[in-house]
Amino acid sequence: MHELRPKADSEKITINLGYVDLGHVDLLVRDGFYSNRTDFIRTAIRNQLERHREASERSVVRKQLDLGISHFTRERLEAVRAAGETLDIRVLGLATIAPDVPAELARATIASLTVLGAFHASPAVKAALAERIA
What we know:
By secondary structure, the protein is of the alpha/beta class. The chain has two domains: 15-51, no CATH class; 60-134, no CATH class. It is 45% helix and 22% strand. The chain has helices at 19-30, 37-51, 53-62, 74-82, 103-109, 123-129, and strands at 66-72, 87-97, 110-120. A three-stranded parallel beta sheet has the order 1-2-3. Strand 2, helix 5 and strand 3 form a beta-alpha-beta unit. Helix 4 (74-82) crosses helix 5 and helix 5 (103-109) packs parallel to helix 6. It is elongated. It starts with 18 loop residues before the first helix and ends in a 5-residue tail after the last helix.
């Protein structure tokens, strides 16, 4: 059985940064405070996340978000359909739907999908769930 797994434990993002700010980052890298631009950006993001940690934790509880990686297999979704139920998926982290899940099964079993982070699924499943993604 082949399951969709992330290639790495991170997601690539792109940011636009002003020239002066970028110059300051490069200066700090050149002076040895950081090993490279990515190291600086990761450190800055982690510092901001720590600064707002308590508010974030309260929001996770209030919004009933699953924290981490949530993987939905064909077998799991077929069991949900057999039970006559649907899922309201709320994830902070990574949500994946196995590549062998047909779009029709996803549409029949997933009532709503909220992902703060990354969502990995086949293009057909993403299209089938497009109107249910918050």
